[in-house]
Amino acid sequence: MPMRTYLVRLNLDIKEKNIRNALRFKAASLSIKALSRPNNKVVVLAHRGRPTKFDKPLSLRPFASLLSKSTGKKVVFIDRVAGAKKKIDGARGGSVFLLENLRFEKGERENSEKFARTLAALGDEYIMNDFATSHRSSPSTTGITKYIPSRNGEIVRNEIEALEKATKKPARPLVLIIGGAKIEDKAGTIKRLLPKTNYVLLGGGVGNTFLAASGVDVKKSLYEKGMVKSAKSLLRSRKIVYPVDFAVKGNAILDIGPETIKRYAKIIKSARTIIWAGPMGKFEDKEFRNGNDEIGKAVLRNKKAKIIIGGVDTLSSLPVRIKSQKQGNILFSTGGSAMLQFLAGKKMPAIEAAKKAKRKMTR
Length: 363
Ligand code: ADP
Ligand code: MG
Hints:
The protein has helices at 23-35, 61-71, 84-89, 106-109, 113-120, 154-168, 183-193, 204-213, 228-234, 258-270, 290-301, 312-316, 337-343, 349-356, and strands at 4-9, 40-45, 75-78, 96-99, 125-128, 150-152, 174-178, 199-202, 240-241, 246-249, 252-256, 273-277, 306-310, 326-327, 330-333. It has 363 residues and is of the alpha/beta class. α7 packs parallel to α13 (337-343), α8 crosses α9 (228-234) and α10 packs parallel to α11.
């Protein structure tokens, strides 16, 4: 077997303080372990945040030693793409490299074709394994696939498969739980899934938007004015369930109330498919985490349902330790917005690009 160099796109965009406990970190570690062999080299492509230039707090440098520990392989950090090729080409089989935050590179930020070619030249095959970034186009997610054989990796394939299964022929009742802050992201998902859904349980800023649509004066609450109109039309569906009571502070609705929890928990108990994105309240605040805790418990208690939970904040809000992506009847998605876009039926450019790219069977 000739020596091969794999370029693998992974998600290291991690906000958690304890990086090693983050689902994305665990998924990335597994991916590196699965790929690395004595007769190949692995180069990790990743980003963190949305820097517009070098920004030290967003450097991936600290991740090299963390990944070395979690994978049991020495992960060598490369701080610039310029010059990376020489280092990678000169290395022994079994080497693993981590490139610095790609968004520090102008070429990546500005979607340069030349930068895509430069990245492609670093290896023999590209593996798209960053589901959470797959709804975006960039040299390291789409551009690169034009120049070397490419495919989607296991993280991406598993997530898509679980999401497709859960929505194409769902076990019923299918219950969609939608909360959180990124509201406009979620309207499209609700609309698109509504025909297949039995109940949509709403909380957080999304719930507030529907409350506003129902005529409640939500005052200073987090909600999306621009979505009130489409929320009004969605409210005609009896599948849409929104809060009937809530916890308020300073003119803002910050959590769902006990009667809402009771109603939601009952529906969750009956569910055979559950898709959850977005916390039910401002859970970071002890005073307002009760609703989310109770909904979390109700979801985790349901062992009969296929469950998909996505979104960084949603995952961190759960009263459970997340050890791996698949845990019993639950799939934890590494993607928040990406998961919602996929569920809304939108094209995922990076997944499409890797699928379309010429493939060379290597295993
Ligand atoms: P995810 O990261 O899981 O995709 P979002 O980012 O959309 O979720 O939403 C999470 C944020 O929403 C949390 O920071 C939480 O505090 C906030 N949030 C939820 N409900 C409310 C509310 N009623 N008022 C203010 N903020 C809320
Ligand atoms: Mg979030």
